[in-house]
């Protein structure tokens, strides 16, 4: 690129030169940045076409299914609320949405019930130990 | 030291030789205060400030205890054909001289990018490809400040910013520390400490700088827009993304590859899921070690002669302009998107195109939530935010390819 000595050393730049060079680089630079990112945008749009199946029908179907997939092995029904009802439902919705790979907007929790935890004590101890081993 | 000062005065020495050291030590202590008490990006500002302290201690000339010889890297008398005399650095340099080679040779910033890549989730960007444009628009401040620096240089006789210096100052607007350091060490090494300090301080000030501009450029209704939920992104897409970005950037702007390529290397380490150990090392141990080396050596280059002058004041002023106009650029395109999509895009996510991750995105979230408490913009803002990292690396590549060889 042709540049005057003044533009390189910064000594004795005139205002006209400064604006001329500045605007040129601004135009060129923004042009290049935009063109690189626009190309990436096009690629990402292609990603959507290639890899993403619209889950619309699935979602509608899913909306009918999810009453909480509560384990059947419930022993007693126990609606004791140690956290607020709304909060619990929010957590449940999020968990179900995550496991069904859908959005929380497609779900409505109609009812839930707490089931007793009847895992043997040894199992629990094992799980706790594994978890603790991974904490570092 | 007092003797030195008297000698300097007697021999008609200027103000700098007399008061330079105490002023630099005071500045180092001020930066330490900002880092420790005010928590301004302490991860970098603390090592930078301490490096500054170390290299500005009053020492006898040619003492073996001097840890940093900035003249080895900037004074032509100590260099061979304008290149750093590595033999001299290794044989007579101090600890910081040797560590500084990592900055000078462009080793640290790309390695930091590997770590950043490991911590970055490009999912929100893949889910909403439009948001990548906001990351491009937010580079406006970079180029606007380039122009500003040249104009300032034309207006004020004691400030001499050529195109190389102007590029290094402009890149502060990318709000990306490693990128700014990478460009500056190649184009204007003498300005490195001022630019690094300005970049990291303003990054810490983003929650103060951005909100007023955001309120000015958007209406209440715009800020309250709730955006559609992002689609889920598959693992295949997340793995393909870094590969494709590297190829595209490499083809168009090879000078950006050392930064973007390393960012994407880190990202694929994480997304591939098969090299968990490498990914953990890159984002923890490796990155922390490099951060210490980078911070302390960049700080150590701040000597009284290179730092205490009007140019530094100019850089601090221009750095603020750079951040403001990058925010303006992002918001402007955000506003356009709001109109084009008829109110589906919340323009606040535009300001997150300034790449300081995740601070800028968090600011969008906070400002949006003030208008509409049930609005969660964070994930939407992460798209432009990570695009901004790519955008500023590309802008850096533009400067490097234009001005390295002149």
Present the secondary structure layout.
The complex is a heterodimer of chains A (136) and B (406).
Chain A: H1 5-9, H2 15-51, H3 56-64, H4 85-100, H5 121-134
Chain B: H1 2-10, H2 15-36, H3 42-55, H4 71-74, H5 86-92, H6 95-104, H7 108-119, H8 123-127, H9 131-137, H10 140-155, H11 163-170, H12 177-187, H13 192-204, H14 206-217, H15 220-223, H16 235-252, H17 257-272, H18 276-300, H19 304-307, H20 310-340, H21 359-371, H22 378-403
Helix pairs in contact in B: 1-2, 2-3, 3-18, 6-18, 7-12, 7-17, 7-18, 9-20, 9-22, 10-11, 10-20, 11-12, 12-13, 12-22, 13-20, 14-20, 14-21, 16-17, 17-18, 21-22
Q: How many helix segments of chain B?
A: 22
Per DSSP E runs of 2 or more residues, the count of β-strands of chain B stands at 0
Strands of chain A, count: 0
The tally of structural domains of chain A comes to: 2
What can be said about this structure in brief?
Chain A is mainly alpha-helical and 136 residues long. Chain A has 5 helices and no strands. Chains A and B meet through helix 1 and helix 2 of A and helix 9, helix 10, helix 11, helix 16 and helix 22 of B.
């Amino acid at each position: 690129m042709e540049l005057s000595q003044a533009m390189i050393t910064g000594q004795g730049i005139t205002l006209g030169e400064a604006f001329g060079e500045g605007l040129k680089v601004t135009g060129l630079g923004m042009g290049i940045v935009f063109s690189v990112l626009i190309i990436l945008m096009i690629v990402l749009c292609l990603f959507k076409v290639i890899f993403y199946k619209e889950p619309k029908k699935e979602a509608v179907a899913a909306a009918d299914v999810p009453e909480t997939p509560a384990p059947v092995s419930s022993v007693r029904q126990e609606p004791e609320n140690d956290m607020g009802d709304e909060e619990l439902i929010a957590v449940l919705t999020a968990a179900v949405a995550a496991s069904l790979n859908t959005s929380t907007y497609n779900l409505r929790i109609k009812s839930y019930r707490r089931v007793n935890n009847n895992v043997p004590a040894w199992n629990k101890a094992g799980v706790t130990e594994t978890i603790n081993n991974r904490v570092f | 030291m007092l003797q030195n000062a008297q000698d300097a005065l007697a021999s008609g020495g200027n103000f700098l030789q007399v008061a330079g050291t105490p002023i630099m030590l005071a500045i180092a202590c001020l930066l330490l205060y900002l880092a420790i008490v005010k928590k301004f990006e302490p991860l970098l500002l603390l090592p930078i400030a301490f490096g500054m302290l170390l290299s500005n201690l009053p020492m006898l000339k040619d003492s073996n205890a001097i840890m940093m010889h900035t003249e080895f890297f900037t004074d032509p008398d100590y260099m061979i054909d304008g290149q750093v005399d590595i033999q001299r650095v290794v044989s007579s340099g101090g600890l910081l001289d040797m560590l500084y080679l990592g900055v000078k040779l462009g080793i640290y910033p790309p390695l930091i990018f590997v770590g950043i890549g490991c911590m970055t989730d490009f999912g929100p960007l893949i889910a909403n490809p439009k948001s990548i444009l906001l990351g491009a628009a937010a580079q406006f401040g970079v180029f606007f400040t380039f122009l500003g620096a040249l104009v300032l240089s034309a207006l004020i006789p004691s400030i001499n910013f050529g195109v190389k210096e102007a590029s290094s100052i402009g890149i502060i607007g990318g709000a990306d520390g490693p990128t700014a350091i990478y460009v500056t060490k190649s184009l204007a090494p003498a300005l490195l400490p001022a630019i690094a300090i300005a970049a990291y301080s303003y990054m810490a000030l983003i929650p103060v700088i951005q909100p007023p501009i955001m309120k000015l450029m958007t209406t209440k209704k715009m800020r309250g827009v709730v955006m559609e939920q992002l689609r889920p992104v598959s693992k295949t897409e997340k793995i393909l993304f870094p590969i494709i970005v590297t190829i595209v950037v490499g083809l168009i702007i090879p000078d950006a590859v050392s930064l973007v390529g390393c960012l994407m290397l880190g990202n694929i380490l994480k997304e591939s899921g098969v090299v968990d150990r490498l990914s953990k090392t890159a984002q923890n141990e490796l990155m922390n070690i490099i951060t210490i080396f980078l911070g302390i050596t960049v700080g150590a280059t701040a000597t009284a002669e290179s730092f205490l002058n009007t140019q530094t004041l100019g850089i601090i002023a221009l750095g603020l302009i750079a951040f403001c106009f990058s925010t303006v650029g992002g918001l402007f395109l955000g506003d356009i998107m709001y109109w084009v999509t008829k109110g589906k895009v919340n323009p606040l996510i535009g300001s997150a195109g300034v790449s300081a991750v995740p601070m800028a995105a968090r600011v969008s979230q906070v400002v949006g939530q003030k208008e509409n408490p049930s609005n969660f913009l964070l994930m939407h803002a992460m798209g432009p935010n990570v695009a901004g990292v790519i955008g500023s690396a590309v802008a850096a590549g533009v400067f490097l390819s234009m001005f390295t060889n002149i």
